[in-house]
Write a structure and sequence with these properties.
The structure holds two protein chains of two kinds. By secondary structure, chain A is mainly alpha-helical. Chain A is built from nine helices and no strands. In chain A, helix 3 crosses helix 4. The radius of gyration of chain A is 18 Å and the shape is globular. Chain A starts with 20 loop residues before the first helix and ends in a 7-residue tail after the last helix. By secondary structure, chain B is α+β, with helices and mostly antiparallel strands. Helices cover 39% and strands 22% of the residues of chain B. In chain B, strands 5-4-7-8-1-2-3-6 form an eight-stranded antiparallel β-sheet. Chain B is globular and about 50 Å long. Chain B starts with 8 loop residues before the first helix and ends with a strand. In chain B, 47% of the residues are buried. The chains are: A mainly alpha, B alpha+beta. At the A-B interface, helix 2, helix 3, helix 4, helix 6 and helix 7 of A face helix 2, helix 4, helix 5, helix 6 and strand 5 of B.
Chain lengths: 200, 250
């Protein structure tokens, strides 16, 4: 994955463009200041956006984002590019931290505006990347192909960090129904991404 | 899940919850039970990994939000103390480095506890009960009278990982110096483990991280505080933060 940053200031010039995430993380593990700054510029908005959507509190989301990157600094040397992209790895870390933070704080139920924000399609990233855009488009299409109740349940759980119990409360459905929607939605999403669903 | 081969009796109970576990939507007690099964079942572990990949693919759909200069600088400032440790493969600074009167004393304390837990782990593996575990710990020549005086209760658990490298035992002591000791059957030198404890309300709290050195240290001690000493479960995570093993405490 080769990305190009619109930012080309002096501090990021050494790593802002052309370097893959794996190369960047290798440099991060060696303590390269420019690589760290480029890594934050490249993935920070996605991590912060995910954390903000899940926590709905800017201060908490900032803490989650900071802790996610702290883990990235700490584990950069052990990152395995064959297992997942650096962005996916970082977003997964951030999601787990945000979920733990939400459950520790016993966050309030979602307001309708917050629910709409989570369920709305993502805006274009500040940093363009053709391959990532294509992958995101494929996931977006697969998600859109789900029946609406399943799509809502999967998005609330995946991007909203809501448990099945919380999904049941938000959607005013029995817990068993919420679990079934999540289960079937994830199965269908997997099949869609694997190209196993015939829309003919 | 439809193509998942059922390998063990536990698969029947776990199979319908793998999607919910992958997306972190299960109740904590059920999640711990399913994860314990997954820890010993290769096919369920592989299935869970695939499902977690599907969940991860959705995350990039979240709306990006600019960080702002202040947050960016905070993030960059936070890397200084940890990146050097990661490069060196050393124990990453955590709470163990912030407490106590001196580094040398803390290191001695950690070494003694690490040696003590080897005995505890051995006792666990041959099925000795908790009472005997206490006696074994207190009676060990490797623990000084000063250290013994600080321990008034011990709870233990067995880590059920995906492989021997992530399996072992844990021990939580309470008293003057509440401590969590993790002892693995084998370690993967250079791989950084994270450690979390689950509290009674289901929340997870980070308590530290550990990078076993080239010498293959298999035991690690982490001081706990009042909030975490009452933990009900210990969760070991891999380099990407994904849980690789967990141990309910009893």
């Amino acid at each position: 994955v080769v990305t190009t940053s619109p930012r080309a200031d002096r501090r990021t010039s050494a790593h802002a463009s052309g370097d893959s995430d794996a190369v960047l993380l290798g440099a991060v593990a060696r303590g390269d200041d420019d690589a760290c700054r480029s890594f934050v510029a490249r993935h920070g908005p996605a991590v912060f956006g995910l954390a903000l959507g899940m926590c709905r509190d800017r201060g908490v989301a900032e803490d989650v984002t900071q802790r996610a990157f702290e883990r990235a600094w700490r584990h950069a040397g052990a990152y395995e590019p064959d297992r997942a992209s650096a962005r996916t790895w970082l977003l997964t870390i951030a999601r787990r931290l945000a979920i733990d933070e939400r459950r520790r704080r016993r966050a309030d139920p979602l307001a309708p505006a917050d629910l709409d924000a989570i369920l709305a399609p993502a805006a274009a990233d500040t940093e363009r990347d053709a391959l990532r855009d294509a992958e995101r488009e494929a996931v977006s299409r697969a998600l859109a192909a789900l029946p609406e109740p399943q799509r809502r349940a999967v998005v609330l759980a995946a991007l909203g960090g809501r448990s099945a119990t919380e999904v049941a409360a938000i959607e005013a459905i029995p817990l068993g129904t919420a679990k079934t929607r999540i289960r079937l939605g994830l199965r269908r999403l997997r099949a869609e991404l694997d190209g196993e669903v015939d829309h003919g | 899940m439809a193509d998942h081969d059922i390998d063990t009796p536990g698969c029947h109970a776990a199979r319908d919850d793998l999607e919910l576990l992958a997306i972190d939507a299960l109740e904590p007690d059920r999640a711990a039970a399913v994860r314990a099964h997954v820890g010993g079942c290769g096919s369920c572990a592989a299935e869970l990994a695939l499902l977690e990949g599907v969940v991860a693919s959705v995350l990039d759909l979240a709306r990006p939000v600019p960080l702002g200069g202040e947050l960016t600088e905070r993030i960059l400032a936070a890397r200084a103390p940890t990146s050097a440790g990661a490069v060196a493969g050393a124990v990453v600074p955590n709470r163990i480095e912030r407490r106590g009167p001196s580094i040398d004393r803390r290191r001695r304390h950690r070494a003694r506890l690490a040696m003590a837990v080897v005995g505890v782990a051995a006792a666990l593996l041959i099925g000795v009960g908790a009472g005997l575990l206490l006696a074994r710990t207190d009676g060990s020549d490797t623990t000084s009278s000063e250290e013994r005086a600080g321990i008034d209760a011990v709870r233990t658990g067995v880590l059920m990982g995906w492989g021997r490298a992530d399996s072992g035992t844990v021990m939580v002591t309470s008293g003057e110096r509440p401590t969590l000791v993790v002892s693995l059957d084998e370690v993967r030198p250079g791989v950084t483990y994270g450690c979390q404890v689950r509290l009674a309300d289901g929340s997870l709290v980070d308590v530290g991280s550990w990078t076993p050195g080239a010498t293959g240290d298999t035991a690690w001690a982490v001081p706990l505080d009042e909030a975490t000493v009452s933990a009900v479960e210990v969760v070991l995570t891999g380099p990407d933060g994904t849980p690789v093993a967990s141990a309910p405490l009893s």
